[in-house]
Structure formats: C-alpha cells, structure tokens
C-alpha cells in the first residue's frame, strides 16, 4: 500500500520516506517560509550546487529543496583556479538554465566577486540582474556585518538574501588561503556577524569551514536556518558542490566532502568504451543506422 500524503517526505517520494506527524506538509514549490518552518520543527534539509539544466532537473527530481548556482562555477565550469575571476555576465546564463529547469526547488544565485562590494547601489543592480535575467529566486553574498546595509536594502526591495560567513572563498587571498575561520577569540565576532545579517533580513546563513562547536552556537542563537559546509553536524542544513559529492573531480577533496558516487570513473569507462567501438567499427551498427 502506497503512503498517503501525510506520510510522504517533505522533499520527495523516495521509498521509505516519511515525515513526523503534524510536520509542515510538502510544498509544491519550496519557498523561504517553508525552510524557516523546518528549522522551527528541528528538521534538516540539503542544498546542492547546480550549473546546468540536467543537474537541476535531476536534483529537483531527487527532492533537493534548494539549489545554489554558486560562483564555484569558476572552479567547476570555467576552469579557473578560484572563484575570484567569475563575472556577473558568466553567472547569469548559468542561473537562467538552472531556474528554467527546476520545477520545485528554491534557486539561489551567488553574487560574484567585484559586483556588490563597492556600494549598496552596485549590489542592488547586480542582484536585480540575477533575479530578472537569471530568474533566480534569491541571491547569496559573502561577508559579515559590513554587508548588513546591502542585505537590508535588497530584502527591503523584495530580493531574498542568503548570507555567507566563516571562510569566504572570494576573500581567500586576504584570508591566506583555505583556512578554518572562527577559532578562539574569533568565534564571538563570527556569531555577531551572523546575528547582524539576520537582523538585516537574511533568510539563511551559510557557515563554511567553521569549528563544529562554533557553528552549533550560531545555529542555536539564530532564528533563521544555518547551512553548513565544513561546519559539523549541528546546522539546520548542509550544502556540497555537486561535482565533489558525485565524484566528478579528480585529485584530493576537502575534508568535509563525502563522495556519494564515482561519476568520473563512470564517464571515463563510458568514453573509453565508445572510443573502442568506433575504432573497431562496432559502432554504429545496424541498430543505430537508418535504412534507405
């Protein structure tokens, strides 16, 4: 006997999925109030990056409630060493592809380096482009309390904002590379930054490469959801870069990455098999050709 509506997962209809009695019902379209309700209920949710229509369709079908079109496209699409070179013009088509393919997920778009730090006006103009041209549902920006005026201006104009503190990749040159943030005396400042962003109107805060106890402290002190990446288990949500979690990239992975597939190996084997078939004449065969 199939599960009734009150027994289904809030994010999908996978086998064995269930939800607590009196929990928030699954929405047809994931929106910010639903994420806030999940925090209130103590229920965790997943976020993945996506940069193209196929990844967006698959993750949306899998029930991932939030898709992030991250400036991590610099490392995972454009072949840059960091996220710093990514431009707004490069982000817009990626956001539009994901937003057009996702039917249910909330699509969040990163504001790339150099398009929002100069002034509130610059940030507002850039965010509007991601919302209008990219069709994003929300934007994400990096930085602490100094970003509060921009967050306040964007949310006041109807643009939802996801904030990002801890290790901020756009500032890696200033931070001295990929380093854990918020240790020791810096923990209080990180908590204060998160609170300032919440007070300015952010609907969620990403905590990247933060000690687990500090991330737990931030999560407990905020009314809005926290999204961890390298921040331990006591956050309201988790995010991973999809090419990391699917095993598409080669080389060493960050400590916080868990690989759920070996997509690189699968594609490598498929490409080798295809090349071998072409070289031997096995492809195309009669079944893959047209008759006169």
TrEMBL record:
The pathway this protein participates in, as annotated, is: Cofactor biosynthesis; (R)-pantothenate biosynthesis; (R)-pantoate from 3-methyl-2-oxobutanoate: step 1/2
Active-site residues are 208
> Which parts of the sequence are annotated with region: Disordered?
1-31
Chain positions recorded as Mg(2+) binding sites: 71, 110, 142
Q: Where does 3-methyl-2-oxobutanoate bind?
A: 71-72, 110, 140
Name the needed cofactors: Mg(2+)
Which InterPro entries does the entry mention? Pantoate_hydroxy_MeTrfase, Pyrv/PenolPyrv_kinase-like_dom, Pyrv_kinase-like_dom_sf
What keywords are assigned to this protein? Answer: Cytoplasm, Magnesium, Metal-binding, Pantothenate biosynthesis, Transferase
Highest taxon of the lineage:
Bacteria
Cofactor binding annotation: Binds 1 Mg(2+) ion per subunit.
The answer on whether this UniProt entry bears the keyword 4Fe-4S reads no
Q: Name one Pfam family in it.
A: Pantoate_transf
| Catalytic activity entry | (6R)-5,10-methylene-5,6,7,8-tetrahydrofolate + 3-methyl-2-oxobutanoate + H2O = 2-dehydropantoate + (6S)-5,6,7,8-tetrahydrofolate
**Where in or outside the cell is it found?**
Cytoplasm
EC numbers listed for it are: 2.1.2.11
Signal peptide coordinates: none
Subunit text: Homodecamer; pentamer of dimers.
Q: What does the similarity note say?
A: Belongs to the PanB family.
Q: What does this protein do?
A: Catalyzes the reversible reaction in which hydroxymethyl group from 5,10-methylenetetrahydrofolate is transferred onto alpha-ketoisovalerate to form ketopantoate.
Q: What is this protein called?
A: 3-methyl-2-oxobutanoate hydroxymethyltransferase
Q: What is the native source organism of this protein?
A: Terrabacter terrae
């Amino acid at each position: 006997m199939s599960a009734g509506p009150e027994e289904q997962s809030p994010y999908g209809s996978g086998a064995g999925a269930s939800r607590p009695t009196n929990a928030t019902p699954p929405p047809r379209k994931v929106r910010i109030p639903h994420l806030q309700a999940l925090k209130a209920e103590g229920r965790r949710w997943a976020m993945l990056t996506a940069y193209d229509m196929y990844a967006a369709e698959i993750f949306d079908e899998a029930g991932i409630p939030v898709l992030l079109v991250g400036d991590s496209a610099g490392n995972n699409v454009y072949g840059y060493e960091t996220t710093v070179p990514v431009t707004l013009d490069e982000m817009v088509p990626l956001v539009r592809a994901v937003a057009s393919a996702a039917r249910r997920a909330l699509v969040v778009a990163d504001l790339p380096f150099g398009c929002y730090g100069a002034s509130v006006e610059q940030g507002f103009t850039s965010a509007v482009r991601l919302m209008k041209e990219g069709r994003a549902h929300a934007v994400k920006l990096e930085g602490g309390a100094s970003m509060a005026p921009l967050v306040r201006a964007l949310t006041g104009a109807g643009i939802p904002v996801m904030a990002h503190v801890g290790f901020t990749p756009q500032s890696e040159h200033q931070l001295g590379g990929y380093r854990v943030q918020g240790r020791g005396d810096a923990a209080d400042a990180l908590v204060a930054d998160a609170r300032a962003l919440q007070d300015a109107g952010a609907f969620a805060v990403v905590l990247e490469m933060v000690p687990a106890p500090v991330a737990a402290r931030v999560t407990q002190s905020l009314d809005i959801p926290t999204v961890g990446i390298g921040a331990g288990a006591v956050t309201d949500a988790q995010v991973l870069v999809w090419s990391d979690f699917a095993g598409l990239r080669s080389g060493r992975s960050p400590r916080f990455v868990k690989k759920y597939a070996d997509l690189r190996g699968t594609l490598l084997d498929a490409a080798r098999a295809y090349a071998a078939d072409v070289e031997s004449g096995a492809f195309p065969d009669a079944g893959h050709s047209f008759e006169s």
